[in-house]
């Protein structure tokens, strides 16, 4: 193949990624090994990014077996606008949002507090980029618990969904989990109990043929006749050997101690859930670092292959912690924490999806006062430029293999770093608790250096 053929193929590939082929300068490349290759900087064209929101709190109305919206959420958007409303059973629910400027700056969050006879708690969830392959872990389908999978398709073509589901006893034979059709610009919601009944530790692998989709899990808890727990959380892209939770808040003994005498309140205890989708058992090393006073703790555990395992971390003192997990096999993991507010009587829980380490710019919309946790996985200190909605800018240094905690207020929060940084925002109010992540765009719109030769 000639040099020119190689360069031409590269230009076609760049066009497919949204880069202008006309920006590439074709320069003959020296073939002698002693000469440094010539390079060209390619500036990308504007990238259109569409993120998807799941919409209302969903559930069952009366004796109906059909999932529908029961309470509206508040949707806040920055750097873009709603371009498509998604329908569920002919009713408008979710939405697709497209950036109005830099695709790296668009962000949206949905949040809401509920306190009814059937649902009580607080949720806040980032809206996210559609994926063809995603993993969701968390929730419960045992007595008094329900977990609802919502699949949102904001595109103009249908999606055909296949689900793989695991539980504590292994892979679940789930009739009806293959070939689920989600029409264009619509949503479908399903109770996970319909696929995996009476399962305390579900995990789901979702594959979409056709359109990419955004999927979330919503979980609710009712103890006897008392509702006490609501959350919605998003996916991770793939199993990994390293999992990060930059902030988990452990409640005080005073706030939840009396509740724990009742076994039905066991899910307010902090815990990690693991899935090993492969055929080899995983050994995981869990490092728990306190943000306040105290010493780090290290725990090692074995996770059986092809199943899920919930690991309580009940011995932690109250306060904010950063959690990192290293595994010798690919895993999917989530973290759960609980709370109880004596003034309102509301008990709530939050599931935290793992937060990937990312470089570049990420944005997250914070629905109220909260705490930002940052984790640096690198061997050198990392500087993160944090800009809040009031225009304040801070260059924060996250130590090598360390963590940083910052209070944050309501509004858009933009973080930029040239080092891999993981982020999570923890929000707590009288209605309950929630976590959310700032996630990068799936296509990096930075300049690309093309090396000829």
TrEMBL record:
InterPro entries: DUF5719. The lineage of its organism: unclassified sequences, metagenomes, ecological metagenomes. Pfam families: DUF5719. This is Unannotated protein.
């Amino acid at each position: 193949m000639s040099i020119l053929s190689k360069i031409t193929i590269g230009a076609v590939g760049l066009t497919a990624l949204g880069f202008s082929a006309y920006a590439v300068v074709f320069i003959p490349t020296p073939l002698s090994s002693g000469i440094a290759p010539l390079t060209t900087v390619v500036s990308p064209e504007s990238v259109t990014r569409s993120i998807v929101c799941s919409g209302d709190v969903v559930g069952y109305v009366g004796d109906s077996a059909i999932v529908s919206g029961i309470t509206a959420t508040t949707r806040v958007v920055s750097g873009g606008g709603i371009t498509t409303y998604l329908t569920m059973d002919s009713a408008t629910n979710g939405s697709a949002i497209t950036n109005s400027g830099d695709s790296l700056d668009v962000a949206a969050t949905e949040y809401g507090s509920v306190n009814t006879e059937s649902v009580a708690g607080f949720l806040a969830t980032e809206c996210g980029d559609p994926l063809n392959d995603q993993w969701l872990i968390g929730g419960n389908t045992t007595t008094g618990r329900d977990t609802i999978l919502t699949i949102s398709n904001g595109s103009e073509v249908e999606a055909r969904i296949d689900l793989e589901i695991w539980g504590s006893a292994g892979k679940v034979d789930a009739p009806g989990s293959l070939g689920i059709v989600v029409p264009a610009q619509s949503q479908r919601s399903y109770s996970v109990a319909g696929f995996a009944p009476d399962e305390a530790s579900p995990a789901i692998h979702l594959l979409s043929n056709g359109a990419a989709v955004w999927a979330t899990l919503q979980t609710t808890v009712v103890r006897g006749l008392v509702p006490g727990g609501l959350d919605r959380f998003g996916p991770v892209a793939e199993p990994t050997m390293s999992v990060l939770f930059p902030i988990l808040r452990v409640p005080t003994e005073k706030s939840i101690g009396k509740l724990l005498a009742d076994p039905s309140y066991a899910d307010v205890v902090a815990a990690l859930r693991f899935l090993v989708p492969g055929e080899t058992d995983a050994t995981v090393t869990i490092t728990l670092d306190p943000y306040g006073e105290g010493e780090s703790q290290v725990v090692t555990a074995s996770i059986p292959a092809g199943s899920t395992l919930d690991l309580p971390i009940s011995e932690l003192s109250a306060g904010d912690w950063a959690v990192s997990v290293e595994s010798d096999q690919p895993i999917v993991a989530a973290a759960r924490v609980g709370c109880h507010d004596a003034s309102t009587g509301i008990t709530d829980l939050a599931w935290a999806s793992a937060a990937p380490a990312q470089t570049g710019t990420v944005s997250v919309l914070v629905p109220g006062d909260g705490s930002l946790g940052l984790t640096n996985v690198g061997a050198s200190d990392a500087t993160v430029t944090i800009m809040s909605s009031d225009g304040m800018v801070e260059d924060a240094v996250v130590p090598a293999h360390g963590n940083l905690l910052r209070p944050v207020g309501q509004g858009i929060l933009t973080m930029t770093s040239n080092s891999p940084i993981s982020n999570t925002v923890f929000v707590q109010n009288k209605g309950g608790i929630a976590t959310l992540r700032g996630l990068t765009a799936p296509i990096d719109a930075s300049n690309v250096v093309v090396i000829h030769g």
